[in-house]
Every structure is written in C-alpha cells, then in structure tokens.
Design goal:
The protein has about 300 residues and is of the alpha/beta class. The chain is built from ten helices and 14 strands. The longest helix is centred in the middle third of the chain and has 16 residues, at about 170-185.
C-alpha cells in the first residue's frame, strides 16, 4: 500500500546556510491492512517523511508510491487520509459545519457527506456533539474531529502524525481502539509516535528512525522471540532504606517502604532472593521480564 525507496532529503538552515541531512536513504514498505508504527526521537525525520509522502515537500532523491501509483498523482492522493500533529481548526464552526467544509475539499457532494457522517460520527465517538462549536471542545474531542476529517472520504491509507500526543489515558485508549477497529475494516494505517507503549499495543510492525536512517524494523511478534531479559523482584521493607546490592549489575529502586530489584539473568534469582531476605525485607513477587519496544528503542539510540 505504501512503498518508500531510497529517500533522501537535505535542508538549508541558518543565516549562513548549513546543510542538514533530514533523511538518509530511507526505504520501507507498508502492506495492505497493516498498522505500521514509525518511531524515533524528536528530530529523527518522522514528520519530514510524512510530508514527503503527502507531497507537501519535495525530496532530493528517492521515490514514493501509494497502492502502486506515484504519490504525486491525483488518484494516489485520493486514497490517503491525513491527521497532522497539530491540526488547525476553524474554531467558530460547529463539528458538522467543519466536516461539511472538509467534504467539499474532498469533492464530495452534500448527500455523500451526510450519508458518510451518519456512520462516521458514532464511529469516532462524536454523537451529540454535532452542533457544538470547535472552540468549546477538549483536545481529545478535537482529535476525534480530526480523525473524522481524515476518514471522511473513506481512504485506503490513513497517515497519522503523533495522534496520541496530548491525550489523557482514556483518550489514548479510545483512539487505540479506533485504530484497531479501522484495521479490522481493512484500512492501512501508518502513524508516527514517541509513545512507545501505545505503539507496541496496536502495531503489526515498527520502524525505528534515528538521524534520518531506518536503524531497525521489526514485527511486534518478534518481541516475544527475544526471550527473557531478566527478573523483577518486588519486596516490602521495614524501613525506608536498604543497603547496596552485592552485584553491581542489579538495579534497586525503593519508595515508601517498598522496593523493586531488577536482575538481568534468571541464573541470579536465588542469590537475589537471598539478598532481599538477608536485608530484612519481605518478598512480595518475582516477575519474569521480557524485552519491550522501549528496551529495543533505547538499545538502538545508544549505538
């Protein structure tokens, strides 16, 4: 559905122009019906990549195709729905007025917009809000309006730039559920994020971008294949202090008469439990720890 091949982009920055390499020979593909998370630190090139896909900026080298068609062609753009990181809303309009205006930009008739909104408004959770002015809506509700705008013309490919940023836990959960629902309907979703826990919950595959390069790409089921990365031992202390552990690789955190000990090998479990008991603490639980997307992300950033 989305094919990016050997993409490179350089900017000029500053009064005395300095060349900044934003993208470096970036190649990736997203399959139909897939949820692909594009993650990386600030300045890695995520938004630059999205702007290149949408044709908002030109690139120095490389090609992009959508559903097998060059991304610059009109039919390719019709297949794409887009929610930017910081969408602009005409806040004097109501929800219905804004979406009707967006429908006109898509070339939809009034009847097509009305028929589409009949199913779309409940899907994004905006029932009863149709007549509210945008200036009165919270960040979470505005994000729903943005999603409705992106889905209005029933696109094949949905591109979301940091869609979960700024939402409270309930809003993030609801938006994750919506993305999974859209996937079940056959939509292809490409989204950038720096909220790794959410990306891990809803993605089929993840691409890690660092300094304009795709440094790692993996399917999420590969996380389970990584095996155990250690153990977490929780315990209760009689005082708020506990001595240093005998093994320098062990990590100890203590707070409010409770402690957490992380060991990096299952072979050390008996030594760790013995140290906890010898320290006068009460063992609460021993939990196997598998690698998370955050662990892998941090490993790539350190290299």
């Amino acid at each position: 559905m989305l094919e990016i091949s050997h993409l490179s982009k350089t900017y000029s920055k500053g009064l005395v122009p300095k060349r900044i390499q934003a993208l470096r020979d970036l190649s990736l593909s997203v399959q139909p019906g897939e949820v692909y998370a594009f993650v990386g630190p600030n300045g890695a090139g995520k938004t630059t990549t999205i702007k290149a896909i949408l044709g908002i900026i030109s690139v120095d080298r490389g090609s992009i195709s959508i559903n097998g068609v060059d991304h610059r062609r009109k039919e390719a753009r019709r297949w794409v729905g887009y929610l930017p990181d910081q969408p602009y809303f005409y806040d004097h309009l109501t929800v219905n007025e804004y979406l009707a205006f967006s429908g006109q930009l898509y070339g939809l008739s009034r009847r097509q917009v009305r028929d589409r909104l009949a199913s779309l408004i409940p899907q994004v959770g905006l029932e009863g809000r149709e007549s509210q002015r945008l200036r009165s809506l919270s960040r979470g509700l505005l994000q729903r309006v943005g999603m409705a705008q992106a889905l209005l013309h029933d696109p094949l490919l949905l591109i979301l730039d940091e869609p979960l940023t700024g939402l409270d836990p309930v809003g993030r959960k609801e938006l994750r559920d919506l993305i999974l629902q859209l996937k079940s309907e056959g939509k292809t979703i490409f989204f950038s994020s720096h909220i790794l826990a959410d990306a891990e919950l809803i993605s089929d595959r993840v691409g890690i971008l660092h300094r304009g390069r795709l440094v790692r790409e993996m399917a999420l089921h590969e996380l389970t294949a990584e095996g155990l990365s250690g153990l977490e031992i929780t315990f209760r202390m009689s005082s708020q202090q506990i001595g240093p552990p005998p093994n320098r690789s062990w990590q100890v955190e203590s707070f409010d008469h409770h402690g957490l000990l992380r060991v990096d090998s299952t072979d050390q479990i008996y030594d760790a439990i013995h140290w906890v008991e010898q320290s006068g603490a009460q063992l609460v639980s021993v939990t196997p720890r598998r690698k998370t997307l955050e662990d892998i992300f941090l490993e790539e950033m350190r290299q």
